[in-house]
């Protein structure tokens, strides 16, 4: 077996080599963490110094230290709001995944369904959420559900369109092969279309994770101006009215932090699912 | 070398080649088969052939001569516009569809990249709802038969081009088909790998009881492998001639360099030139 001998470092790796490889991976990952952290620290330092040297008032630009102190001092109320926003985001994302994937599957089962409904999905996507959020909040009595709907509208489309694309992009010869072996529609979906759609779906999921948060925050702003108390966006509004700028920054910081965490988690999920087979998850050396 | 689980065919190499289509009922017969695509192209015109049990037949022709189209129609992927394809020795279901019992090997390995080698090979059995333990055993056996024992858990991306094609062949033979349809399966491989896979395919064919219909555009490959070569011409795709390759099996590297092989190649090549001029 000539080609067997030339084969693969993949499946059979000796322990020593595995350890060496792990070290190499850490050595490669470290600068990727250290470099942005260094930039962050330097920026914060410059910010802190500038604020003190130039004597900028906290209601114009609070220093990072003051923001951190405010964050700790107000942790009680901020934590509650953070929790509300995260709940809305997570629920919206889950509903977007369930409905987006189901609808995408429906689309691939019948061309007519796709032709009839896809334009409306596009309309839902292109209409700015700020413009329809007030309506939704008026129509839906329960604010939490209204917020959920707003966040869902924003998060839904990338999952739908990416999954539809993925389900339709299964290898043509593989489709023929399934046909030759008399595969049922369900088998075709389960063993071919869904796995083929996985990388596309995960790409959509990463976009939607961030969008769900944005949708939730935007909706909270709209609801907040209407006087209905809720998540972090409401804290920002409230602090603005009361000129508590450090608290505003603290809430803003929590929103950004949440967004970054969502992105990291979804990236990790995507990597874990695809790492064995998809080109995007494979490191190559030339 | 490849480790064959099954015994070699009759090793007395003087054995005459199997006479075509006389041993029992033919597996498949094509009568006046014509295929016109919806854009008006006449891909195949008046194609007639009879393929018997345990035959090795090649369809040879320039690209665009409809040889792949013929193969796909035999597989049931797309019906002929006119003419008929009969399966005289197959059972038919209530709808009159024949149980073709065939496997298809594409030009590309056509593996599922998200599944390991063994799971790829298990696919036809899984689609037929075979019991799990039987699937495992038969897939492992098929992988061993094509010389990939020990690579069960490798993903396609971890395998070389030749090895991927071996997995593809293992997937085709795991159902123990009566007829194996191969659509230029080795065209994308380098010559060394191709020769090796030619030899291994012949060995497997000798040991098993399948019929093979092999599409190729290589004169040398078709002469090396087949008992019979159907030479086709393009525009519209049609049969120009049928040539029997009488050299006995088993054929090996010494056949590849023998004067008989050379003579056959020259004759087939001349036919192919005639086909391309026609």
Structure at a glance:
The complex is a heterodimer of chains A (286) and B (278). By secondary structure, chain A is mainly α.
Architecture overview:
The complex is a heterodimer of chains A (286) and B (278). Chain A is mainly alpha-helical. Chain A has 11 helices and no strands. Chain A has 2 domains: 2-45; 64-281, MetI-like fold. In chain A, helix 4 runs antiparallel to helix 5 and helix 4 packs across helix 10 (232-241). Chain A is flat and about 75 Å long. The model of chain A is unreliable at 1-13 (pLDDT under 50). Chain B is of the alpha/beta class and 278 residues long. Chain B has 2 domains: 28-101 and 178-277, P-loop containing nucleotide triphosphate hydrolases (Rossmann fold), CATH 3.40.50.300; 112-176, no CATH class. Chain B contains 8 helices and 9 strands. In chain B, helix 2 (117-127) packs parallel to helix 4 and helix 3 (132-145) packs across helix 4 (161-173). Chain B is globular. The model of chain B is unreliable at 1-22 (pLDDT under 50). The A-B interface holds A 1-4, 6-8, 10-11, 171, 173-174, 176-183, 187, 191-192, 195-196, 198, 276-279, 282 and B 1-2, 72, 75-77, 102-104, 106, 108, 110, 112-115, 123-124, 126-128, 147-148, 151, 153-163, 175, 192-193, 196.
């Amino acid at each position: 077996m000539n080609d067997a001998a030339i084969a693969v470092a993949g499946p059979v790796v000796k322990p020593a080599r595995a350890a060496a490889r792990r070290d190499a991976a850490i050595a490669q990952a470290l600068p990727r963490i250290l470099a942005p952290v260094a930039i962050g620290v330097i920026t914060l330092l410059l910010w802190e110094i500038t604020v003190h040297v130039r004597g900028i008032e906290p209601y114009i630009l609070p220093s990072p230290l003051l923001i951190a102190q405010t964050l700790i001092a107000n942790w009680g109320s901020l934590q509650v709001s953070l929790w509300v926003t995260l709940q809305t985001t997570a629920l919206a994302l889950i509903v977007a995944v369930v409905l987006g994937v189901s609808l995408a599957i429906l689309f691939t089962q019948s061309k007519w369904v796709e032709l009839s409904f896809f334009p409306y999905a596009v309309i839902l996507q292109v209409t700015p959420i700020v413009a329809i959020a007030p309506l939704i909040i008026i129509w839906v009595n329960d604010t939490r559900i209204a917020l959920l709907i707003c966040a869902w509208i924003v998060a839904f489309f990338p999952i739908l369109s990416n999954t539809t694309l993925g389900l339709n992009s299964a290898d043509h010869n593989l489709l023929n092969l399934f046909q030759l072996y008399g595969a049922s529609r369900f088998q075709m979906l389960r063993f071919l279309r869904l796995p083929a759609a996985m990388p596309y779906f995960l790409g959509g999921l990463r976009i939607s994770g961030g969008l769900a948060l944005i949708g939730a925050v935007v909706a909270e702003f709209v609801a907040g101006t209407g006087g209905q108390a809720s998540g972090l966006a409401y804290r920002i509004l409230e602090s603005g009215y009361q000129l508590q700028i450090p608290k505003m920054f603290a809430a803003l910081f929590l929103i950004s932090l949440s967004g970054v965490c969502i992105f990291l988690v979804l990236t990790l999920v995507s990597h874990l699912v695809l790492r064995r087979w998809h080109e995007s998850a494979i490191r190559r050396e030339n | 070398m490849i480790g064959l689980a099954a015994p070699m065919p009759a090793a007395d190499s003087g054995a005459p080649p199997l006479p075509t289509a006389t041993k029992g009922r033919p597996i498949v017969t094509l009568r006046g088969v014509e295929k016109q695509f919806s854009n008006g192209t006449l891909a195949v015109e008046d194609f007639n052939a009879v393929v018997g049990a345990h035959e090795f037949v090649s369809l040879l022709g320039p690209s665009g001569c409809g040889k792949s189209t013929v193969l796909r129609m035999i597989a049931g992927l797309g019906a002929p516009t006119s003419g008929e394809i009969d399966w005289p020795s197959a059972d038919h279901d209530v709808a009159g569809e024949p149980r073709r019992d065939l496997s298809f090997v594409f030009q590309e390995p056509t593996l599922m990249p998200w599944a390991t080698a063994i799971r790829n090979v298990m696919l036809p059995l899984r689609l037929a709802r075979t019991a799990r333990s039987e699937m495992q055993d038969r897939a492992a056996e098929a992988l061993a038969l094509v010389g990939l024992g020990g690579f069960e858990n490798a993903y396609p991306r971890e395998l070389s081009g030749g090895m991927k094609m071996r997995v593809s062949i293992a997937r085709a033979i795991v159902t123990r088909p009566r007829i194996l349809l191969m659509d230029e399966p080795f065209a994308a491989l380098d010559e060394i790998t191709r020769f090796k896979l030619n030899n291994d395919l012949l060995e497997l064919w000798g040991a098993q009881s399948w019929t093979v219909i092999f599409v190729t555009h290589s004169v040398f490959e078709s002469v090396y492998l087949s008992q019979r070569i159907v030479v086709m011409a393009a525009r519209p795709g049609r049969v120009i001639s049928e040539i029997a390759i009488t050299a006995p099996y088993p054929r090996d590297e010494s056949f590849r360099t023998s004067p008989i092989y050379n003579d056959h190649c020259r004759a087939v090549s001349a036919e192919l030139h005639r086909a391309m001029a026609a």
